[in-house]
Amino acid sequence: MRPIRALIDHAALAHNYARAKALALGARAFAVVKADAYGHGLMQVNAALPQVDGFATLEFESALALRDAGRTEPLLLLEGAFSIAEVCEAARRDIWIAVHDDASLARIEQAALPAPLGVFVKFNTGMNRLGFAPARAAEVLARLSACAGVTVRAVMAHFATADDEVRGISWQMARFDAEPALAGLPQSLANSAALIDFPAVHRDWVRPGIMLYGATPFAHRSAASLGLRAAMTLESELIAVQSLRAGEVVGYGATFTAEHDMRIGVVACGYADGYPRHAPNGTPVVVDGVVTRLVGRVSMDMLTVDLTDVPAAGVGSAVQLWGAQLPVDVVASAAGTIGYELLTAVTMRVPRIAL
Ligand SMILES: *Cc1c(COP(=O)(O)O)cnc(C)c1O
């Protein structure tokens, strides 16, 4: 079998959720598991977190899978239901749904509900993606309370710059707190960054995602400094070794030229596994426990690394692309992106193995 795999550290997931709960003080915390639990595998997280206050996701099938797995906690669909049939199915399976605009509200009003339905009403405080204008709160809440069987479980909003130490959240909170109809209801506002930095907005339900997976929501603070542990280690092996003479090149486009005679390791990992093709020469990679560097262009199924500082490495040597020894955030930063993107990009062909 091809040696690439993603090790999923259940103890790290449990540690990170406990860390989120400790930071949340009294608030309840949804474990955000959209995008197949940020690439870790929904059922891995289901197994790792036997005790959570709830799960939040976007994909209807993920919520159904959690119910089918026997989870009885609150489940929330962050983008709501996309049809009247889904509204009814959500009610039947006791899955809460976000309602964020006139069309999603109309679907709830028109549904012949087979069972009670819980909703989170989303308000737009400046992100300008989803949500009603806060000034419409009284009207929207009145329309929902006129729907038999519908219970508003909370009002919610989402921050655009909670991870930005300068811009922060006060500009959005000013709009939220200025609307009297939003006071007095349970509230859900905070993503990981706001949960970590702004205790005043924890309110009733927090929604940590990235921190559960042991990556940082911040550009300039490491996951370790936040007390988090990497939940995924993406590892593979060297499947070949090349000896290059000074002046020789490696890979498509010949983007790396050997500065001196050197050994190059060929790793069974490429962009079809989710490793970013745009990672440049010098991106860190761990071989046999030693941090070395990517050289040459990442191809579909392989990438190549400098073995100068790992003279004993050979075919079969262990390679870590990111994880326990090399934070995904460091690799992401070298590649000009964020940990979120790398974690969620790991493809289906990479087996997720419980650690
Ligand atoms: C993804 C998401 C979150 C989690 O955000 P993190 O930055 O990963 O903590 C919270 N709320 C909503 C609405 C989301 O879509």
Q: Hetero groups bound?
A: pyridoxal-5'-phosphate
Q: How can the largest sheet be summarized?
A: 8 strands, mixed
Secondary structure: helix percent: 25-40%
Secondary structure tally: strands:
18
Q: Rg, please?
A: 23 Å
Report the end-to-end length measured between terminal Cα atoms. 19 Å
Structural class: alpha/beta
**Percentage of β-strand residues:** 15-25%
Averaged pLDDT, please?
A: 97
Overall shape: it is: elongated
- Ranges with pLDDT <50 over ≥5 residues? none
Total of DSSP H or I helical runs spanning 4+ residues: 11
* Helix-strand sequence: EHEHHEHEHEHEHEHEHEEEEEEEEEHHE
Describe this structure in words.
- This protein is an alpha/beta fold and 355 residues long.
- The protein is built from eleven helices and 18 strands.
- The strands form three sheets. Strands 1, 10, 13, 14, 15, 16, 17 and 18 form an eight-stranded mixed beta sheet that branches. An eight-stranded parallel beta sheet has the order 8-7-6-5-4-3-2-9.
- The relative contact order is 0.14.
- It binds pyridoxal-5'-phosphate (PLP).
- Pyridoxal-5'-phosphate is lined by residues 32, 34, 78, 158, 191-192, 207-210, 217.
